[in-house]
Amino acid sequence: MVKQTIQIFARVKPTVRKQQQGIYSIDEDEKLIPSLEIILPRDLADGFVNNKRESYKFKFQRIFDQDANQETIFENIAKPVAESVLAGYNGTIFAYGQTGSGKTFTITGGAERYSDRGIIPRTLSYIFEQSQKDSSKIYTTHISYLEIYNECGYDLLDPRHEASSLEDLPKVTILEDPDQNIHLKNLSLHQATTEEEALNLLFLGDTNRMIAETPMNQASTRSHCIFTIHLSSKEPGSATVRHAKLHLVDLAGSERVAKTGVGGLLLTEAKYINLSLHYLEQVIIALSEKHRLHIPYRNSMMTSVLRDSLGGNCMTTMIATLSLEKRNIDESISTCRFAQRVALIKNEAVLNEEIDPRLMIIRLQKEIQELKDELAIVTGEQRTEALTEAELLQLEKLITSFLEDQDPESRLEVGADMRKIHHCFHHLKKLLQDKKIHEKSTVSSEIKDQNCQEPLKEEEHKKLRDILQQRDNEINILVNMLKKEKKKAQDALHLSSMDRNEFRHSQSSPFPPGNPEGPRTLPSSAPTQVHDSSAVGYRSSLLHRKTEMREEMSLGRQEAFEIFKRDHADSVTIEDNKQILKQRFSEAKALGENINEARSKIGRLKEEITQRHLQQVALGISENMAVPSVPDLQEEKLRSQLEEEKKRYKTMFTHLKALKVEIEHLQLLMDKAKVKLQKEFEAWWAEEATSLQVDTPAVQSLNLTKPFHQTPESLHERPQLLSNKSIPKRPTSSIPLTGDSQTDSDILAFIKARQNILQKKCFQ
Ligand code: ADP
Ligand code: MG
Questions:
Q1: Using the 8-state DSSP alphabet, how is residue 705 labeled?
Q2: Residue 47 to residues 265, 505, 578: CA-CA distances in angstroms?
Q3: Would the CB of 321 count as within 6 Å of ligand 1?
Q4: 14 lines ligand 1 (CB under 6 A)
Q5: Global pTM value
Q6: Which is it for strands 138-149 and 35-39: parallel, antiparallel or unpaired?
Q7: 117-169 pLDDT, tens per residue?
């Protein structure tokens, strides 16, 4: 068991303006506990009615200033957690801070550069690298991605749904079993066998997260996202499996609303915008106070899901993200205060080991076979399942002579064979019963047949009865033991099938809370559906479909899309990434060629060495002398060349592997950027259409037969981004969004006309 308080780190986001210095300072002189001092600018400090303090000091495990890059953050914060997860402990890393302070950047990464990738992709990379290196264990990785918005959970990785709004995604609900373990119903679990597969899942979830967001729900600032890596490991041949979960959590923005009626900045008592963060704080307060018995985890979905991470079986780390600009001082101080409380919470992480019943049965069966084999060696007999007729006859003869033997010391020797021992007991029992029946019948018929067996003397009779009693007891003990073993095996079988069913079919047969048949062995907050990697094909096609945007657009709309794209800020990034991607592709191609070359060179060198060796041996034979003891210089030279070449091959191969991941990441970044562009275009298109209706009375002359009603809701409604399949769902009055080519060219003409006017205005 590892006892540890929650580790707290601070990360300061780079400021746009450089003149923000003087607002904070980092003191790392106190070698052990670094501290962050936030200094209130004089004008702000004066604004406080009750608070004249001018600086606040907070201690953190480490503070990362503006220049800390993603690599440093991973190495110092996430890597140690990933290591303990590989060892079998649960881990959680959560980012907490106001909107815009860098939570998503830290947890997932930036949307532009490969070097900006955040904790999730780096951790995935590290976990796959380490698990491939470690040949002493077999690792299995599953991924789930949950978004919690407004107390509702949504599965971001559901392969059956194409999200165009949060409501389209399957709703995830919480079930609690009698042991108070949390189960997440409807959260799909996907196996990832390679880093690329895991990356694809991350981007699929992120894309769903982005396109499901509307200005109305502001999901990215008001929802919590929990990316979970479920890692199982076991040693080959062992029945013990370790399960560890790593939650990587991007919390909702922690900004608060100041109490009304008080002007200026307020450093106390402001309320969270997000209610579940309020409940998170309640849990943190309860945990940091000694002797509190009740911790209000159940108040919100997020605290229920993260129950183990907070004061439970988990190694937890918090990253306080700070945007230390003058206008954010109050929020930054709140974030630091929250962190100080979190640092008081003690967790106790234990190794999550359990016996896999299926593996246990296999192991026991193997053990039985081994014991049978061993027994066969000791007794020199090969055991078959049943005794043969001859053996049975032989045994019965032995019993008869044993019973007839007058020597009290005589023994019944049948050897160390349980089957024979059992048969002896059965036979004796039968004899005894026969005798009893016989005695009874003789008594009732007043001894009709005097020629039957000599009656045993009373004393001998008693002795025999005692022996039989003793044997009977032994048999009973053995039978009981057998029954117990059988029951254990049946239980184990039942449990394993229950586990499988529960994992696969929980959607149709959930264990309701309080059901005593509920799963006992599942780790808490286990998602309840497993998808194998066959879903990967679907996923990539889904992503592909999502990026295949313009196929079904009308010509007018396509042209407008080109204009929009040209002027969009992200198009520069997309173009840049395209260039980098091209470069990486040609690098990878060249590297691939070099690798092939190196491989054939290695083959040639090996061949040459063998030839040379054979030559030397042949020379030795022909000159009638042993192989020369002096090393052959030529061969040595070849060998060192071979070593060099192998090294080169290995380096290039590692490089190519890294390039492959980078290419995959860049492609996914671009796909995501394209979807974003498309989404924004649709919003812009809708807006232009509204302006067309509002601004131009000439709209009547256009081919719009019905007025175009667009309420604020419908404006903010998620545009159908990825296909026109859902067009019929739209109200027929929303003509401009139907993809009707005539209408679309009208809007385009309108947009162009507006642009012309604007341009003219600029030149006037
Ligand atoms: P949050 O998720 O907390 O709302 P984001 O992670 O979205 O904040 O960050 C807001 C903006 O700041 C994004 O454009 C992001 O790329 C940028 N950003 C955040 N942290 C950093 C950083 N450490 N270095 C560079 N850019 C950053
Ligand atoms: Mg964010």
A1: -
A2: 7, 60, 50
A3: yes
A4: yes
A5: 0.69
A6: unpaired
A7: 999 999 999 999 999 999 999 999 999 999 999 889 999 998 776 667 788 88
Rounded CA gap, 124 and 490, in Å? 39
Predicted local distance difference test score (pLDDT) of residue 469: 78
Instruction: Encode 419-453: b = buried (16+ Cβ within 10 Å), e = exposed.
Output: ebbebbbebbeebeeeeeeeeeeeeeeeeeeeeee
How far, in Å, is the centroid of ligand 1 from the Cα of 273? 20
Q: Is 112 in the pocket of ligand 1 (CB under 6 A)?
A: no
Alpha carbon of 111 to ligand 1 centroid (Å): 10
102 lines ligand 1 (CB under 6 A): yes
Instruction: In whole angstroms, give the CA distance from residue 764 to residue 754.
Output: 15
* Angle between helices 741-763 and 555-567 in degrees, nearest 10: 40
**Collapsed DSSP state (helix, strand, coil) of residue 506:** coil
Which residue intervals of 134-225 are DSSP H helices? Answer: 195-211, 219-222
pLDDT tens digits for range 614-647: 888 887 777 766 555 666 788 889 999 999 999 9
Is pLDDT of 764 > 90? no
Q: What angle do CA 753, 755, 757 make, to 5 degrees?
A: 70
User: Given the CA of residue 321, which atom of ligand 1 is nearest to it?
Assistant: 3
Q: Which two tokens stand for residue 583?
A: 């470069």
Report the separation in Å between the CA atom of 669 and the middle of ligand 1, taken as the mean of its atom positions: 16
Distance of alpha carbon 58 from alpha carbon 75, whole angstroms: 23
Q: Which ligand is nearest to the CA of 100?
A: 1
Q: What's CA 318's distance to the chain center, in Å?
A: 19
Q: Look up residue 539 and give its two tokens.
A: 């996923």
CB of residue 99 inside a 6 A radius of ligand 1 = yes
Q: Ligand 1 pocket test: which of 70, 72, 105 has the largest number of ligand atoms within 8 Å of its C-beta? A: 105
How far, in Å, from the CA of 190 to the mean position of ligand 1?
29
The residue to mutate among 13, 213, 221, 570, having the most atoms of ligand 1 within 8 angstroms of its beta carbon, is: 13
* Helix, strand, coil percentages in the chain from 3-state DSSP, rounded to 5: 55, 15, 30
Closest-approaching ligand to the CA atom of 319 = 1
State CA 176 to chain mean position distance: 20
- Mean pLDDT (whole number) for 522-550: 50
Residue with the bigger pLDDT between 666 and 289: it is 666
Q: Please name which of 226, 251, 231 lies closest in space to residue 243, comparing C-alpha atoms.
A: 231
